[in-house]
Amino acid sequence: MSLPSNPLPEPSDSMPELDPIVSEDVRIPPASVQMAPLEPTILLHAEPRFPSWSWWDALAVLGITMFAVFAFSVIALAIARYLPEYRTMPFAVLATDARIVVGAQAAAYPIVLIFIFMLVRSRSHQRFGAAIRWNWPGISAPLFILLGGLLAWVVDFISGFLPIPKSLPMDNYFHDATSAYLLAAFGLSLAPLLEELFFRGMLYPLMRRAFGLTIAVILTAAAFAAIHGAQLGYAWGPILSIFVVGVVFTVTRARTNSVAASFLMHCGYNFALFAALWFASDHYRHLEKVTG
């Protein structure tokens, strides 16, 4: 079989180059355009504003607390009037009966705690513990309880140099052993929890943001002492003592960034007070020896 007389020509430099077939959806940039290298994108998440609640929210908590305590006190007094042992008691005596007072506050405080929980969660959109800066101190927890007990001893020693009245309005609540045990149980649980969540958890951050650390510590401690004024007969000696206690609690909260730490110290402080009364009154059997 012979080859054709005119074979295909060899490719040469004079032959035109064919353009590559490119789809209409593809755009190939010219060689002169340099593509900038891709850099990683860093997503910055803004830190949530702290505190996320306002002064109005703090006032709302205070208002809810006063209303709930008043409402449950009225209910407790009304119920007591139907009980034989309370029916003939004067109103002034009923108002200082620990079973009525503690019962009313024990019913009101959980409602206030739920309100605080819901308010903080709605304002911060965080877990409650993180939003309020609860921050449990872990293995250091017993240390803060011991420090609270030591603080009670120091404050009691200093109070010996202050004009402390022989009897205070709060002494009227210690009628008998049952009253003393009820007050002790309340003073080691709901009372310090609510007070620390409000004063060191909610109020102190607002004070610090508005006035700075030093003024915030002083004002928070002053507010803490003020709510105990009626129990202390507004005598300046006992109020000064509780003001010092409030300063220590607030400084602890500020240094540790932990409301739980000040709560544990508060519990240790109250425990030392009730324990000292327990020993001094022969296991709460002779309260008249120490309460006047």
Integer count of domains: 1
Question: What is the end-to-end distance?
Answer: 138 Å
Question: Helical element count?
Answer: 11
Query: What is the H-and-E element order?
Result: HHHHHHHHHHH
Q: What topology emerges from the helices and strands here?
A:
Blueprint: H1 55-80, H2 91-94, H3 98-124, H4 128-132, H5 141-159, H6 177-187, H7 190-211, H8 213-227, H9 236-256, H10 259-280, H11 288-291
Helix pairs in contact: 1-3, 3-6, 3-7, 5-9, 5-10, 7-8, 7-10, 8-9, 9-10
Description:
The protein has 292 residues and is mainly α. It has one domain (55-291). The protein has eleven helices and no strands. Helix 1 (55-80) packs antiparallel against helix 3 and helix 3 (98-124) packs parallel to helix 6 (177-187). The termini are far apart.
List keywords for this structure.
single chain; 292 residues; mainly alpha
Sum this structure up briefly:
The chain has 292 residues and is mainly α. It has one domain.
